[in-house]
Design goal:
alpha/beta; two-stranded antiparallel ribbon; Rossmann fold; 259 residues; 7 helices; seven-stranded parallel beta sheet; 2 domains
């Protein structure tokens, strides 16, 4: 499957959304059958942290222009003007929007991630510009999507109660994504400046709930949990789950038959 993903905010400077994009794109690119095109505005390349992706996946810089626009106006221009044209010029099987918004004018099958509806539930916690942006585009995107990824049951409940969207929603809680876990108790103690006798030894014997077991290296080495690239613990559901209830309309797709 040739999958296009909006990876414009793929940087730790964008907090949780940035981490979500980085992990998800890298994990999908590592899965058999997926060729990911991570679409990034060219002016964001200097701080994008995706790096080189495996296999046929790649970061695709896209010229946006319009440097006269502010952040949210430029994002609207990117998502609603530039992305539809970019997708139309490529041979993509599906598109994933990891930050609540989809390129609405692209007629192909689209999946969107909805992290929360804070801009509606508690708008005072957002800036007015942020609230206005998501109020304008998020609901329309969820309604247009072949599949909606909700990161919690609470978000899924909000989607159903506030927007009447439930049939296309798949609840996929976020996985633990701790990159480096020292396997040696004293090495861990040095990192956190604590008494090694009171520091629980990390390792596979008692993994955190919902995380993947770590492998056991030699003392003093670094363990990578891999929870966000494992097909079992990855933060994105199978595309088959998302599309199980979608009929063969222009929005539908066949995720189980990768290109």
């Amino acid at each position: 499957m040739r999958l296009a993903v909006d990876a414009g905010l793929g940087s730790s400077r964008y907090g949780g959304l940035g981490g979500y994009i980085l992990r998800l794109v890298r994990g999908l690119a590592a899965m058999p059958g997926f060729e990911v095109a991570a679409l990034v505005p060219a002016h964001y390349l200097d701080h994008n942290e995706l790096g080189v992706l495996p296999g046929g996946s790649r970061v695709v810089p896209v010229d946006v222009g319009r440097e006269d626009l502010g952040f949210y106006d430029r994002r609207s221009y990117w998502e609603q003007e530039v992305l539809p044209a970019t997708l139309a010029s490529g041979d993509y099987d599906a598109y994933f929007g990891p930050t609540l918004v989809l390129p609405l004018d692209w007629p192909g099958p689209k999946v969107v991630a909805v992290h929360d509806l804070a801009f509606e539930v508690a708008p005072d916690f957002n800036t007015p510009l942020s609230t206005a942006f998501y109020s304008r585009w998020a609901r329309a995107s969820a309604e247009a999507a072949a599949g909606v990824v909700a990161i919690s049951k609470a978000t899924a409940n909000d989607l159903e109660q506030r927007w009447g969207i439930s049939e296309t929603v798949t609840v996929t809680p976020l996985a633990s994504c701790l990159d480096f876990v020292p396997s040696d108790r004293r090495q861990s103690a040095r990192l956190v400046n604590r008494d090694p006798n009171t520091l629980a030894s990390p390792g596979p014997s008692s993994p955190p709930s919902g995380s993947a077991p770590a492998t056991t290296p030699s003392s003093g080495s670094v363990t990578t949990s891999g929870s966000c690239t494992s097909s079992k613990f990855f933060t994105f559901p199978s595309f088959a789950e998302c599309s199980a209830s979608v009929s063969s309309t222009p929005k539908s797709w066949s995720p189980t038959s990768p290109a």
